[in-house]
Structures are given as C-alpha cells and as structure tokens.
Amino acid sequence: MAQEQMLKFVDRDQAYPDKRTADERAQDFREIANRYAVPTAEDQAGRCSQCGVPYCSVHCPLHNHIPDWLRLTAEGRLREAYELSNSTSTMPEICGRICPQDRLCEGNCVIEFSGHGAVTIGSVEKFITDTAWAEGWVEPVQVAPARGQSVGVIGAGPAGLTTAELLRARGYEVHVYDRHDRAGGLLTYGIPGFKLEKPVVMRRVERLEQAGIVFHYGFAVGQDATLDDLRRRHGAVLIATGVYKARQVEVPGADTNGVVAALDYLTASNRKGFGDAVPEFDGGALDAAGKDVVVIGGGDTAMDCVRTAIRQGAKSVKCLYRRDRANMPGSQREVANAEEEGAEFVWLSAPLAFDGVDSVGTVRASRMRLGAPDASGRRAPEVDPGGELALQADLVIKALGFDAEDLPTLWGAPELGVSRWGTVLADGKTLMTSLEGVFAAGDIVRGASLVVWAIRDGRDVASSMHKWLKAKAAAEKVAA
User: What is the pTM (predicted TM-score) of this model?
Assistant: First the structure.
C-alpha cells in the first residue's frame, strides 16, 4: 500500500495551495492561501521519495518525522499523521505557516535537488493539524499527578509556551508571566495575520489555560516583581523573554517624527486586528494609509512591514536593502508575495539621512555595491561612488533586527550573566544561567532567530528543568 502511494514525484507536479489574487489579498489581513483539500494533500504527500537519509528531517530544528507523516497522509491515515507530527512539535500548524521551509526542510528535499520540485512539506504540515483541530483530534494536555513543585516562566512566546506545556504535562504547577495583555509574544503581536491568523495562536493558548497553566498578563519583571521574588515563589524559573529592542539606524534624522520601529508598527496593526484601541494608530502615527512608505531592511520583519503597509492603503511602498536580492536574509517567497502585492524593492541602497522639519519627508540614500566576503562569508556592502538617490516618504519603518534588552538592570539582577551582545548566558547542555535554578531559552539566549528554534529550545529546556527539579526534590526528601 505505502509503495503504491509514494514516489510519485516523477509523474506528479509540485502544487502549493492556491493563493488568492494579489488584489484580493491586499484588501485584508486573512492568510493568503487556503489549506489543501484532502485529495490534493494526499497527492502532494505522495510525491515524497522516502529517501534513506531524510535531509528534510535533518535540517528541521525539531527533527520532525517528516517522511513518516507524509507517508501516512498519502495513505489517508490523517489522524496517525497528526499524532506523529504532534509528537515532536507543540505548534505544528504554526510552523507549517511561518517556518521558512525554503531554507529548511523543503530547501533540503532530495527531489528538489533532482529538479522535480520539493515536496510541499509546510503546506501538508499545516493541513494535517488544521484537520486535527476541525475533527476534534487535538486532545487536552494530559497532566501527570501533581509533583508539589512550581515553575515560573517569564515570557509567553513560543519558547515559554512550549516549556510551560511540557512541564505541566509532567505534573508541575506552572505560572507564565508576560508584560503584554495576551500570550503568544511575536506570534500574536509581531507576525501579521496574513501569515498567521490570530485564532490559530489563541486556540493554542486556550488549550494551555484549560490544562491549568496560570497566565499573569501585564506583568513586568522588574516592576511588578524582581527576579529574586520569582525565584522565591517557584522551584525553578525560565527566562524566555525573546529580544525586542530595535536596532537603530545611525544616520541624521533618525529621531524625526514619522520614523518608527518595526515592532511598534506591527504591534499597533495586530492590536487593531483584535479590536483594541490604539491611540498612535488612530491618530495616524502608526497607520500607513495614504502615505509614501519606506521600509529599511531585508529580513522577514521588513517583509511583514512592507505587506502590512500595502494592506493599510499606503500610497506607495518601497523597501531599501543594502545588498541584492540573492544576498538578503529574508524568505524569497515573502519577497515574491510582496512584489505581487505592489511593493517596490530598491536593492543595493542604504539610508544616509531622513530629512524633514516637523515630520519626515525624504529618505536620502547611497547606492551600494558588494565587495569582498566578510567573516560570515557574505559579500560585504560598500558605498558605490556612483551617486545618491532621494525617496519621498511620509512614514519610514526601521526593520533592522532586534537586540536584547538590559535584563540585569531592568530586573535588578546584576548577578545574571550576559554575553557581550546582551543575551543571557546559559550552559550549552543544561540551559541553566549563572543563577542556580534559573534557566533561559529561545531568542534571549541565541539572539533573534526562528520560531521553530524557540520551540526546539523550549523542548530542550523543559527536559533539563525536569531533571533538575527531580534531583532537587530528591535532595530535599533526604534532608528531611
């Protein structure tokens, strides 16, 4: 049966789910493509070559059992496919939507190398778990008998939520602290709905609440409690705050009105999607409607800003990036989507100044060229003496990446070890910080990275914390 359904990549073309037209999808924040119908998903899963060394799994940070659940999908055994997919990932349908598959699993698919087009792994992953939710196969978190120990998780992003779920399943009392009014971190407030509709995130959060995980919203460590307070309150603490401090553009006029940070802009847009009152959006400062918009940066956050501005009704949207298309860090799929929707990319350009009196009116930029490779192997951009350009702009969005906030100072914890980049230092094996019983995971350790890596880190640190807490309980029992 399995062999009859598989290895169809020679006579079956690659087919992603149909995208809505660019004009249609630019009018709303719904996801741009629907999920597969059942026969199509089974057909596309059947293209898998079932290779002996599954490079797709090797290059997945979670090492998902991709060929196995593709085979089960091709055979119509969707519930088994979901259960296998769910065994390695706490958020498979979210990864299916937002992972850069072109750089990870699909980019390393064996049949992609042979010229037949990769298996559409992300779309099938999304289909499997969306079907599971629709059919009622997603079960409540199975909670083990209470252990009498509690854990505090600082940060309700993907790393924190993953750790909270896995430790709650092991029987720990789990409290999650987040300074926002909803859980999800960047999943909720940083990623636009056209890539990840918010009910997809909220149903995951609701499942954790139903499991007895306690969420403390609007809770800022350093203001509402110190790190030491949380250490006294819980047997172990996880720092999973992510990195949120925007990198700055060091040019004249960077503080001019109308020059805004990407995360402020995206958060405002997502809050409006929830129906919240957002004064800076309602007053026009964070609304692109009717404006000439220039986005600075070439990563996925820049693409999110570009495509959000289009949906808000911007007059024009341009993206400045100092390298060329081939050397940009963002997903090529996202660039293609943005171009289809009307964005213009100004490659090999870097800002020189933001000019304006009361508000920004012009972006002056220099032409760039690619020189010799830098330490990372990428060709370093350098100024091209060929000239400058000027772009009209009523709104400039800085999307140059994120750095860590000064947690030791913010939290009154000078003894917390940090790297020279401001990220929290954690043991490579245990993920424990310089403070006994305080662990760290996700972007606050590795720097700005992918959601799938945050989930992987959450999975790893949950195992490490469980081992440490068991040893602590055993030692306390002996001492008693």
Answer: 0.95
Same CATH fold, 249-402 and 150-243+404-479? yes
pLDDT of 311 > 90? The answer is yes
Question: In the CATH hierarchy, which top-level class contains the domain 2-135?
Answer: mainly alpha
**Could you state, in order of their start, the residue ranges of all structural domains in the chain?**
2-135, 150-243+404-479, 249-402
Specify the range with the lowest mean pLDDT, choosing from 32-46, 71-85, 146-160: 32-46
Kind and range of the H or E run holding 467: helix 451-479
Handedness of CA 265, 266, 270, 273 (dihedral sign): positive
Architecture of the domain whose range is 249-402: 3-Layer(bba) Sandwich (3.50)
Q: Return d(Cα 185, Cα 208) in angstroms, integer.
A: 15
Helix (H, G, I), strand (E, B) or coil at 205: helix
Give the pLDDT of residue 480: 76
pLDDT over 90 at 39, yes or no: yes
Kindly indicate the confidence band of residue 303, based on its pLDDT and cuts at 50, 70 and 90. very high
Mind giving me the DSSP string for 15-72?
-PPPBPPHHHHTTS-S-SBPPPPHHHHHHHHTT----SS-HHHHTSTT---HHHHHHH
140-148 mean pLDDT: 97
Instruction: Identify the pLDDT of residue 13.
Output: 93
pLDDT score recorded for residue 2: 46
Backbone angles phi, psi at 99, to 5 degrees: -65, 145
| Burial of 334 (C-beta count, 10 Å sphere; 0-12/13-18/19+) | buried
Q: What CATH class has 150-243+404-479?
A: alpha beta
Strands lying side by side in the sheet with 438-440: 214-216, 173-177, 150-154, 236-239, 438-440
Element containing residue 3 per DSSP (H, E): helix 2-5
Whole-angstrom Cα Rg for the chain: 23
User: Cβ-count burial of 115 within 10 angstroms (0-12 exposed, 13-18 middle, 19+ buried)?
Assistant: exposed
3-class DSSP state for residue 285? coil
